[in-house]
């Protein structure tokens, strides 16, 4: 048996705590402005689940994108509804259109369903390259089984639909890709294409040299190497998705004074004892923390002419103004979700964005005392602007960036 290959059952750790980091990277077929590969992911907080889908539409360009989008969208919604792989596979295969000449479906798919509640990862594949599961820098091979599909033909036919499940461990990675990756280099000096074995070797070497590499960075390295195999003129769409199970990075954002001034010390103590990055947002909030923890505050250089400068306080990673800064944070994050090439500046809102994006679990401690400077007496529904702002911020963090956000009001 190879030194990097094993298939023993993973022990179920007591109270396992891990974060599920999801990343992907794509390059289009040469000359195309849109990819025929479609990647979707969704975190379902109420079920403690994460679902990732990669679909490869037949061909390339707009037509392939439409087919891939249809398949990925149906796969995502069906996987949310059906947890049984056989039922899911037969439902989606009956729903998808079939090529009249080749008698095959117009798109392939890979579905990764991670249930943190049950501590299990389920994988379902149709005609995509076999998913790699890396345990550290070794390949973990679970037991794959075939899904029998009963199509329109009278006789049962076994298509290339396979499934597996396994118990994840800290530092596990799941890597899945379109066939443009494994077939890269075909006709460009690599006789049979790059292939799965070379992909395994390349991925292991990266993890050996950079063991903490992020999911997105690993996916990017794989895709760019595949493009190099094609002499940077890809003859197929190139997509790689990675799921990385690791220790969670945590942060706390404290904003607004507590409703009851007697809670000021408790408010500051929660911040002090939190294990992770710490952000204080709001002038009054900063005064309370400074007073209760007996730590002075010092203003820093101003980098954003539209916002007050950030401040420094011992033991706190970032101290900023409140409502205006958090409003801009929400705006910047929404901008990034639309334009992935957007670059942050050096202002306080930009710094908050960077810190939050580098965090997995964000705890927001919101004081509920009404700030008279922000309260509009003509709009009684707007009891506290800060509450509504936090809700908008939470929405973009959870829906666009798959962060886990927990809010506590005090």
Provide structural commentary.
With 410 residues, this protein is an alpha+beta fold. It contains 10 helices and 19 strands. The chain has helices spanning 61-81, 85-95, 179-182, 195-209, 215-229, 264-273, 283-293, 323-338, 348-357, 385-401; strands spanning 5-6, 19-27, 37-44, 49-57, 107-115, 120-126, 132-135, 138-140, 145-146, 161-166, 172-177, 238-246, 250-255, 277-281, 298-299, 311-313, 316-320, 361-366, 404-409. The model is unreliable at 1-16, 153-158 and 374-383 (pLDDT under 50).
What is the CATH first-level class name of the largest domain? Alpha Beta
Number of β-strand runs? 19
Give the number of helices. Answer: 10
Helix content: 25-40%
Q: Any idea what the CATH architecture of the largest domain is?
A: 4-Layer Sandwich
CATH homologous superfamily placement of the largest domain: PPM-type phosphatase domain
Question: How would you concisely characterize the structure shown here?
Answer:
This protein is an alpha+beta fold and 410 residues long. The chain is built from ten helices and 19 strands. The protein has two domains: 242 residues, 4-Layer Sandwich (Phosphatase 2c, domain 1), CATH 3.60.40; 160 residues, no CATH class.
Detail the topology: elements first, then pairings.
Elements: E1 5-6, E2 19-27, E3 37-44, E4 49-57, H1 61-81, H2 85-95, E5 107-115, E6 120-126, E7 132-135, E8 138-140, E9 145-146, E10 161-166, E11 172-177, H3 179-182, H4 195-209, H5 215-229, E12 238-246, E13 250-255, H6 264-273, E14 277-281, H7 283-293, E15 298-299, E16 311-313, E17 316-320, H8 323-338, H9 348-357, E18 361-366, H10 385-401, E19 404-409
Parallel strand pairs: 1-8, 13-14, 13-18, 14-17, 18-19
Antiparallel strand pairs: 2-12, 3-4, 4-5, 5-6, 6-10, 7-8, 7-11, 9-10, 11-12, 15-16, 16-17
């Amino acid at each position: 048996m190879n030194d990097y290959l094993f298939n023993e059952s993973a022990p179920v750790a007591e109270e396992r705590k891990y974060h599920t980091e999801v990343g992907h990277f794509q390059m289009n077929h040469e000359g195309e402005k849109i990819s025929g590969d479609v990647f979707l992911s969704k975190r379902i907080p109420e079920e403690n689940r994460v679902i990732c889908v990669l679909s490869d539409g037949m061909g390339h360009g707009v037509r392939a994108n439409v087919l891939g989008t249809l398949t990925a969208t149906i796969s995502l919604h069906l996987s949310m509804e059906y947890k049984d792989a056989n039922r899911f596979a037969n439902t989606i295969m009956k729903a998808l259109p079939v090529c009249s000449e080749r008698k095959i479906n117009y798109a392939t798919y890979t579905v990764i369903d991670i249930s943190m509640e049950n501590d299990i990862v389920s994988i379902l594949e149709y005609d995509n390259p076999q998913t790699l599961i890396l345990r550290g820098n070794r390949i973990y091979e679970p037991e794959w089984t075939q899904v029998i599909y009963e199509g329109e033909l009278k006789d049962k036919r076994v298509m290339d639909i396979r499934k597996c499940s396994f118990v994840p461990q800290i530092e596990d990675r799941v890597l899945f890709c379109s066939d443009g990756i494994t077939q890269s280099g075909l006709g460009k000096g690599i006789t049979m294409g790059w292939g799965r074995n070379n992909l395994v070797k390349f991925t292991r070497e990266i993890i050996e040299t950079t063991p903490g590499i992020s999911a997105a960075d690993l996916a990017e390295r794989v895709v760019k190497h595949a493009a190099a195999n094609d002499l940077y003129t890809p003859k197929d769409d190139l997509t790689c998705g990675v799921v990385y199970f690791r220790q969670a990075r945590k942060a706390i954002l404290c904003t607004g004074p507590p409703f009851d001034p007697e809670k000021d010390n408790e408010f500051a103590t929660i911040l002090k004892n939190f294990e992770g990055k710490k952000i204080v947002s709001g002038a009054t909030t900063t005064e309370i923390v400074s007073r209760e923890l007996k730590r002075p505050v010092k203003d820093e250089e101003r980098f954003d002419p539209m916002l007050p400068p950030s401040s420094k306080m011992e033991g706190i990673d970032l101290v900023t103004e409140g409502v205006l800064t958090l409003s801009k944070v929400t705006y910047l994050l929404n901008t990034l979700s639309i334009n992935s090439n957007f670059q942050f500046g050096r202002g306080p809102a930009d710094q908050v964005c960077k810190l939050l994006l580098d965090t997995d679990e964000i705890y927001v401690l919101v004081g509920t005392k009404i700030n008279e400077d922000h309260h509009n007496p003509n709009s009684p529904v707007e009891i506290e602007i800060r509450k509504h702002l936090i809700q908008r911020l939470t929405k973009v963090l959870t829906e666009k960036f798959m962060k886990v956000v927990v809010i506590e009001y005090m």
